[in-house]
Amino acid sequence: MQNNPIELTMTSAGIPVLTEHVPNSASAGFLVAVRTGSRDEYDGIFGLSHLLEHTVFRETKTRNSFEMAKEMEGAGGELNAFTAKEMTGFYGITLGETADVAMKLVGDIVANPLINEKDTELEKEIVLQELSMVKSEPESYVHDLFEENLWAGNELGRDEGGSEETVIPLTHEDLRKYYDERYGRPNLAVFATGNFDKEEVVKWAEETFDPMDAPVVNKRTTPDMPKAKYSCTEHNSEHLNIGFGFPVGKLDAKERAAVRVLGAVMGAGTSSRLFQNVREKNALVYSIYNDSHNYSDAGYISAFMSCTGKNVIKAMEETARSYSDFKKNGLEKDELQRTKNLLKGAVARGAETTDNRVYRMCVGYMTHGSASSTADTLAQIDAVTEDEVMAVAEKYLTSDRLNITVLGRCSKKVQAFEFSSLEI
Predict the structure, then answer these.
(1) Peptide bond before 138: cis, by omega within 30 degrees of 0?
(2) What is the mean pLDDT of residues 217-241?
(3) Engineered SS bond to 156: which of 15, 41, 151, 402, CB 3.0-4.6 Å?
(4) pLDDT tens-digit series, residues 79-102
(5) Nearest Cα residue to 303 out of 198, 404, 193
């Protein structure tokens, strides 16, 4: 695979601009990230980061949302955004030949939003519908609940969108104050990938974002490592969904790679331990997969599964047994290389899309302070040894770290389940 190195350039005012030039690409992507998210909110503004991310698309000093949509789609592109726990991102993807349109529109929504009362109230209605939709989809909702229970008492436990109770009272004045406080230097970073002119990207970043100054830099509290915990939440769904995971602390790059391989061994693909043991051999679940995550100072290794009520306890027991057996017996012959190839294949396929590339750069830099090229990421996976995988398994897959969240129609037996009986 062709190596497209990631270059870091600082604007005159000190804003980092990370560029990955892919000369043969037919498209170009540009993303501006703000180092603020749901983790950085406080009582009275929960859900504000997400509502603000929506509202800035309504109208800028020069365009309304329909004009932006026509201009972007006329350039063969897409304009979108996301709110996460530690950042908010705004991006545009276009044809390489219309890259200037993507830069112009992303710059406009980040640097020139109106944030008026009418737009805020309209977008609030959409956000409330989004929050309701998430709760109606238990396969997604269980992820939010799992993190809420895992990080209870810390800002990481907050859902990115807030709740109906916290979003309804928010006003356009709240949004404007938050924007003025946090949208600017030193909270901004700019990312570009695909076919573009690097000098033009840096010039655009300087002219558009250097004048923006943010007086508030978020201070975050590292969460204490959670103790073992079991919780059930009632939900009117036919299947029960289970989050089954283990918290981890801040990891360096080498340990993150080992944890990534460990998670894939256990739950990535149909040849993984959990899929084979819990689904194929015992038919206890409809779906089961790994879903690990890393924040800047904490994270988790997890499995998520869905099953009927009669199988919940057996599914949890077999999942625990799979983890325990892995720690006891280690990797099978060729399992490590097969898993590495699975991960590398996913990375390689993702690198073929511009939106995946620019998002990967953003998350790496904003979360860990560095962004790895595709070639470097593949090399990091290749470098993981069997000893390293077993070391992180022994360190993190332990009964005293086990956190379980069950979502659905929980019987009394499931609610009263003694999860301490699960030995890992």
Answers:
(1) no
(2) 94
(3) 151
(4) 999 999 999 999 999 999 999 999
(5) 404
d(CA 144, CA 116): 30
From 357, 11, 7, select the one nearest 193 (Cα to Cα): 357
DSSP 8-class letter at 276 = I
For residue 211, whether the previous peptide bond is cis, meaning omega lies within 30 degrees of 0, is: no
Q: Among residues 300, 308, 306, which one has the least CA distance to residue 242? A: 306
Q: Which amino acid is at 253?
A: A
Helix 312-329 and helix 386-396, axial crossing angle in degrees, nearest 10: 130
Rounded alpha-carbon distances, angstroms, from residue 54 to 120, 137, 202? 9, 21, 26
Compute the distance between CA of residue 267 and CA of residue 262 in angstroms, rounded to an integer.
9
Task: Indicate the SS3 state at residue 173.
Answer: helix
- Where do runs of H (alpha helix) occur along 25-171? 48-55, 65-74, 99-111, 117-135, 138-150, 164-167
C-beta of residue 76 within 8 angstroms of C-beta of residue 86: no
Residue with tokens 């100072």, as numbered in its chain: 297
Residues 236-258: pLDDT tens digits?
988 999 999 999 999 999 999 99
